[in-house]
Design a protein that fits this description.
There is one protein chain. The chain is an alpha+beta fold. Among the domains are: 28-117, 2-Layer Sandwich (Alpha-Beta Plaits), CATH 3.30.70.330; 172-242, 2-Layer Sandwich (Alpha-Beta Plaits), CATH 3.30.70.330. The protein is built from six helices and twelve strands. The strands form four sheets. It has a four-stranded antiparallel β-sheet, with helices on one face. A hairpin with a 2-residue loop joins strand 10 (231-233) and strand 11 (236-237). It holds the Pfam family RRM_1.
């Protein structure tokens, strides 16, 4: 009788990001490609058991919302501990997924608090601005002629049925109810803060609508979810749906 060979469970790797990982050492590590099905309390315990051997952990930050799912931040008391963890735990297999580690682009709240209350308040203010302040933006370089036509027909708001646009994912978002005075560059400043952003495309002659394109449907969904309650002006929200294919 032939021996029973156990099935091989594939290890899930993550795609290489377009933007290079930060090289400046930091107390905080950013971790991605985490199994999204793990409950946050359990995930924190498991990450702690993996990474505590590299040094004292100040805190582990992880959230269950769509934007942060599958990601976490580990804040070490000392920068050297983060560096050691980055070097030794890169591609560590956790729940059949290779963890991808890099230094965090910014300081964590816990680390900034050490520097004083004034520094912490400035840190929070700067972070809020980077998440969508209309005056924080770059000018886009666009070429609409290379793009095929996209339906600009307004889509119905969610009613919970299978006809809801949420059930028809698209890497392109359709933005409606844009107030007067909001420019292409301002929209770029808001939507480029989310991973995978490609460009904003306006519709000639229709100043109250626009399209925003991301690299893939998941990234577009993250931006859509994160900005659904965002006030582009005080008391004024735009309506964001997936563009019709």
């Amino acid at each position: 009788m032939a021996p029973i060979v156990p099935p091989v469970i594939p290890v899930i790797t993550a795609p290489t990001p377009k933007d290079p990982a930060p090289e400046t050492p930091s107390n905080t590590l950013y971790i991605r490609n985490i199994d999204e099905k793990v409950k946050i309390p359990k995930l924190k315990k498991e990450l702690s058991s993996i990474f505590q051997k590299y040094g004292k952990i100040v805190e582990i930050v992880a959230h269950a919302n769509l934007r942060m799912r599958g990601q976490a931040f580990i804040v070490y008391d000392e920068e050297e501990s983060a560096t050691k963890a980055l070097e030794e735990a890169q591609h560590f297999v956790h729940r059949n997924r290779q963890l991808l580690l890099q230094y965090s682009k910014g300081k964590s709240d816990a680390i900034v608090k050490r520097e004083g209350e004034d520094q912490f308040e400035e840190h929070k203010k700067r972070r809020l601005e980077e998440k969508g302040n209309l005056f924080w933006y770059r000018l886009p370089v666009l070429n609409n002629k290379k793009r095929g036509p996209i339906s600009a027909k307004p889509q119905p708001k969610s009613n919970g049925s299978s006809k809801d646009p949420m059930f028809h994912l698209n890497k392109i978002l359709f933005i409606q109810n844009i107030p007067a005075g909001i420019t292409e560059a301002m929209l770029t400043g808001i939507f480029q803060t989310y991973m995978g952003f490609k460009e904003v495309r306006l519709v000639p002659g229709k100043l109250d609508i626009a399209f925003v394109e991301y690299d893939n449907e998941h990234q577009a969904a993250v931006a859509k979810e994160a900005l659904k309650e965002y006030e582009i002006q005080p008391g004024h929200k735009v309506h964001i749906t997936f563009a019709k294919k």
